[in-house]
Structure formats: structure tokens, C-alpha cells
Amino acid sequence: MHAPDTSQDRASSRLHAALGTLDSAMIELDEVQKKFDAVSGRIDTLLVNTTKSPSANLGANLRSLNARSEMLRKALDRARRNFASARKGYHQASQAYASKHEQHTDALALAQVELAEAERCKGALSRSISAWFDPKDLARGTQDVQTLKGHEGSFGYLPINPARFFDLLILIERVLALDPDYDDPVLRHRPVRFLDVGCGTGRNLALARTGNVLKTQALAGFDIDATRIAEGKAAFGLDAELSVADAMTYDYAGHDVIFSFRPFHDPDMMQRYESHLVASMQQAAYLIAVLPEDLVRFPELSCVSGAHGIWKKTG
Length: 315
Prior knowledge:
The protein is α/β, with parallel strands linked by helices. 58% of the residues lie in helices and 11% in strands. It contains eight helices and seven strands. Strands 3-2-1-4-5-7-6 form a seven-stranded mixed beta sheet. Helix 8 (267-280) links the parallel strand 4 and strand 5 (286-290). The model has no long low-confidence stretch (mean pLDDT 90).
């Protein structure tokens, strides 16, 4: 992508300045013209009245008005020159702005094409990553993930689109970089402890580790499905990071950023899970909640991005 072009902004500023100069010149010209016309009118009136009734002061009055008229004539000439110069400057600035605007329009069209191509590439990479990381999940039918066998109300593992996952990591990294609670003297934010709830095989942790978008001190993930955890340890080398645990009883206090992709399809279970999660989260921790049930009911949570389901525990 191209760097932002500020030349159009500069051309716009010059155009506005030229317009202001032209406006001032027009006002000046109008004011001087009115004064000149008024003096000329007074001279004409004096001559007419004197013809009807001669006055001894005629010569003195005419000399005074003629001197005033000559001064205004010179001022009027200057005002006309200033107006002509301002009009020329405005014309040049207008042409320059039109040229820059055309260039900007062309650049914007090119950027839109590049963005569309980047989105296509992003989608292709995401599909490839899913095929490599989640071959078994892609082969499973919808019915297989609706309910985890032996755990009614719980979803089977639902792998989030890798591109969307990275979008969320990029967003939370930006948020952390602006948060004084996560300040670091060198890095954009201090390294965080990241947790994936219902992590399945732990592929999100593998993506977070290799992608290096978010600076992490520790990665952790748990799932109630021991088979998935065993698969992940074998596939991704996440032996120390993965564990078998229940989301309803897990202690979330040791983590700075918690990723939760709706582990329960039963609404009541989801509400109980959210209550326990929020209660055990540490102060200033962030929650990335994809498809939450009802986080608005917790006054201790502040919504950072409703569109992306990002919350911070502030109360």
C-alpha cells in the first residue's frame, strides 16, 4: 500500500489561502470604489450647485475634492492591481488543486484495487492455514460440533477463521499499546499472558506464537476435551501450554488477555460461564469475546470495541 499523500492537503490549504486573499482584495476594491464614487459625486454636485448659485469657496472646495479624488484614484489602481494578482493566484491554486485532486482520485482507485487484492490474498492464506491446521475440523460435519459428546450444552471445537483471529490480535495489540496499564519502556506494550478458552488442539496459540503480532509473556489454552488436547500437544509442540480443564471452574485470574469463542450453545450455561469468567478475571485484564451472551450486564466490564467483542475489566 502507498504511504498517505499529503500533497493534496497542501494544495487544498493553498487554494483556501488564495481564496481568502481574493476575497480580501474584492472587499478592498469595493470599498475604495465606493469612496471614489462618493467624492466624484460630491464634485459633480458642487459644480451643478455652483452653476446655479456661484460661491466664493468654489475654488477651495474643488481643489480639496480633487486632491482627495486623486488619492482615491491611486488607491483604486492599487486595489485593482491587488485584485488582479489575487485572481491570478487563485486561478493557479485552483488548477494545482484540480491536478492534485485528480492524482488523489487515481491513487485512491489504485489503493482500492490493491485492498481488494490484499483481501483476496488474505482469504486464500486463511483457507490454506485452515486446511493445514484444521484438517479434521474441516472434515467434521456441522452436527458433530453442535454438541460435545458427554457435555450437553457445550459446543464441539469451532475453529475461528485465521484471518479474523489475526484481525482481533492486531486490534488488541493496538489497544494495549495505548493503555497505561500495559506500558513498557521499550516495547509498544508489556508482554501479556494470553489464554484461549476451549482451545481445542491449540491452533490459535500456534498462530499467535508464529504470527508474533501480540507480544506475549506466556501462552495458555485449555479444553474439556482431553482428546483434542492430546492432539494439539502432539501436533504443535504445545505440551506446557495446553491443559484439560472446565470453563465453568477454571481460575482466570492469571491472564491478561482472554480469548473466548462462545464455548456453550446453551444460553443458561453461557450466562453462568460469563458470570464466573468476569468474577475471576483480574483487574485490567482484557476479554476478547466472540459471540458473547450478555456482557453488558456486568458493570465491572468496559466495552472497548462492541463490533469486535473486546472488553476490559475496570471495576
